[in-house]
Design goal:
By secondary structure, the protein is mainly α. It folds into 2 domains: 32 residues, no CATH class; 45 residues. The protein is built from 3 helices and no strands. It starts with a helix and ends in a 5-residue tail after the last helix.
Amino acid sequence: MTLARRRSAFGGFLAACWAAASASALACPICFRVEEGPVTDGVRAAVLVLMGVTAGVLAGFGVFIARFVRRAAAGDDVA
């Protein structure tokens, strides 16, 4: 199985799990059934921003490591 095929299969699996999860499973106990208001909207936006920043940093770190692995496999000397 190729890497691209594995990634697409894993992405499909994650999408299926996300679609199958109920609303209560996706909400934290503090945010579930809380009053709607501007503070609640702000907290939700802040959580999404923090998750986006975290995902971006982890993706950058993964690319950084993958480049080192590819260079080591190719036998390129950086120094």
